[in-house]
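User: Restriction endonuclease. Structure?
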Amino acid sequence: MDWLEQTARLRQWTAGGVRAPHKPLLLLYALARFQQDPDGELPYSTVETALGDLLVEYGPSRRTSPAYPFHHLVNDGVWEVHTTSGPGSPGTGVRELRASGATGRLAEDLRTSLRRDPSLLPRMTRVLLDLHFPPSLHDDLCQAIGLELEPAKTVSLPDGPRSRQRDARMRELVLTAYEYQCAFCGYDGRIGTVPVGLEAAHVRWWAFDGPDAVDNGLCLCSLHHKLFDRGVLGLADDDTITVSQRFVSRSPAGRQVLDLAGGPLLGPQFGTERIHPRHRAWHAEQVFHGLPRPRVPAGP
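Assistant: Predicted structure:
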């Protein structure tokens, strides 16, 4: 069994660029639990709470029951479910899963392979992270799950629509277009001639067919890049900045984020392609959390 290929080909709803990270999140969670206790089983009641929290933080705004991936991941050959009546899932009903004492864990063949090859777990983790989440979220997600993430390594993926190569020119093209300043706050720090803390952010994530192109990129400081990928910040149809109503902060730095609501993008320079509406719409539908805050009125 090629477990990397199996991991890369999880069956999930992907039509129209819709994000469905439910199975990847459950598999990452299961890998983390295996790392801590290779023989342990995961009661549905425990997974329901943990996976529910992960879906709120790292999934799209729409709500989905953790029962669906708990049941359907069995079909991918990497997961198994048992109840008090024996092997097999009782279905996707929350009540049935709770009442039957359902437990899940990685499939037996996969557990055997993970024991034999210690490098397999970090490689599977890298495949899941690279295919379903932007790099800015990898460390935070692993910390939230309790998964020890090893230094980044190149993992070859099976041939397919999501096995394309990144364009190394993306960062330079985007930073040049926005004149080396954060498009949200104007930060333009340098050490000598080298920009520090500036990054090229994909509006539509590369993992979801977002092109390495200026019309899909923003030059953002490290903080605003992470907030953009977490759905705290977004873009309105008129290219003004949106801030999620779910984001709260009382600190001066947090207030600076709240004050971005309704403000204009800084750049790109004249004659450069602006964010394409289809990429902006994808981010608004698949990443941005909740409703945008109204613009803060200007003082007297």
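The mean pLDDT is 90. The chain has two domains: 3-145, 170-286.
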